[in-house]
Design goal:
It is built from four helices and 17 strands. By secondary structure, it is mainly β. It has two domains: about 140 residues, no CATH class; about 100 residues, Lipocalin (Beta Barrel), CATH 2.40.128. The radius of gyration is 20 Å and the shape is elongated.
């Protein structure tokens, strides 16, 4: 997943390596990492959870790092889409691949390296300025200086528990389940609406999403990990204080 537009020079990267305990011959930066260390290790434990990072257009995305080595990023539509991608609000539904990306993490130096299925890599570490993110583009040498960097923020609290990717059953029985992505800044995106964006908030432990299409979706008990939960839908123009238009099911993808 791409980082911010700020580039990192070779000199700056070398200084960072020295500052974080590496040298010109530091093994973590001179060779591919060794076998995955247990998730209970001190390094891994520091980074597990949900992070707020920045993509190549300086837009927020989140990534959840699980103890089993999985990484799932949640990012919605890019402001500057690549060829074949559709920005939010264009009148064309988003593909699930535009809402999240899967990857794996492993201990790398004094931090974690995340390798995504789309070819990007992120390195998270605590440097002199606090938690930082360094990113390599698909096809670039991971042993060379990263192309971009940004500040990294680890999230906590109830909001962090519900940030992520969901698979929801829609009101219309003829339609398949759709993907919904919730970002830590309150934005929401989906793969079903022609205008596939909206906003979400927590109310009494439930996630309430108001879509720009005028649909409302309530995910009951969204913070729980694993299993099914209830999804309530209100059709456009209906009274939000009345009974929902439909009650369906959903589950989490991360």
């Amino acid at each position: 997943m791409a980082a911010s537009l700020r580039s990192l020079s070779t000199t700056a990267f070398a200084a960072l390596v020295l500052a974080t305990g590496g040298g010109a011959c530091a093994p973590a930066l001179r060779a591919e990492p060794a076998a995955q260390q247990p998730a209970s290790s001190a390094i891994a434990a520091r980074y597990l959870g949900v992070w707020a990072l920045s993509d190549s257009a300086n837009n927020l995305f989140n990534v959840r790092l699980s103890s089993d080595g999985r990484a799932i990023s949640t990012w919605g539509a890019k402001t500057m889409p690549q060829v074949g991608e559709v920005p939010a609000g264009s009148g064309v539904p988003l593909r699930p691949g535009q809402l999240f990306e899967q990857g794996r993490w492993q201990v790398w130096g004094n931090g974690l390296r995340i390798d995504y299925a789309d070819g990007w890599s992120d390195w998270l570490l605590v440097g002199p300025a606090g938690p930082q993110q360094y990113s390599w583009a698909p096809g670039s040498d991971r042993l060379s200086p990263p192309e971009n960097y940004a500040k990294a923020v680890k999230l906590s609290g109830a909001e962090a528990e519900v940030v992520g990717v969901y698979r929801l059953t829609p009101t219309q029985p003829e339609k398949p389940p759709y993907t919904a992505a919730l970002l830590s800044n309150g934005q929401a995106f989906n793969s079903i609406d022609a205008i596939p964006s909206g906003s979400w908030q927590l109310k009494n432990g439930n996630v309430v999403i108001d879509w720009l299409s005028d649909w409302r979706t309530v995910i009951v008990g969204a913070g729980k990990q694993g299993g099914k939960f209830t999804v309530q839908h209100w059709a456009p123009g209906t009274n939000r204080e009345s009974a929902p238009s439909a009650v369906r099911s959903g589950d989490r993808l991360n």
